[in-house]
Amino acid sequence: MVATRYRTAFQLYPYARVPDQDADAPVRHPVVIVGGGPVGMGLALDLGRRGLPCVVLDDHDGVGQGSRAICFAKRTLEICDRLGCGEPMVDRGVVWKRGRVFRGEAEIYAFDLLPEAGHRRPAFVNLQQPHFERFLVEEIRRAQAGGAPIEIRGRNRVTALDRHDDHVALEVDTPDGPYRIEARYLVACDGAGSPIREMMGLGFEGRVFEDNFLIVDIRMRTEMPTERRFWFDPPFNPGETALLHKQPDDIWRLDFQLGWEIDRDAELDPERVRTRVVGMIGPDVSFETVWTSIYTFRCCTMDRYRHGPVMFAGDSAHQVSPFGARGANGGMQDIDNLGWKLAAVLAGDAPDALLDSYHAERKQAAEENIAHSSRSADFLTPRNAAHALFRDAVLDLVGEVPFARPMVNSGRLSTPCTYDGSPLSGPDALPGAPARTRPGSACSDASLAEGFLLDRLTGGFVLLAIGCELPEAPMAAGLALGTVAIGPTDDPEGLVAARYLGAAERGLYLIRPDQHVVARWLDYDPHAVEAAVTRALGRG
Question: How far lies 132's CA from each of 50, 57, 135, in Å?
Answer without folding.
Answer: 21, 19, 5
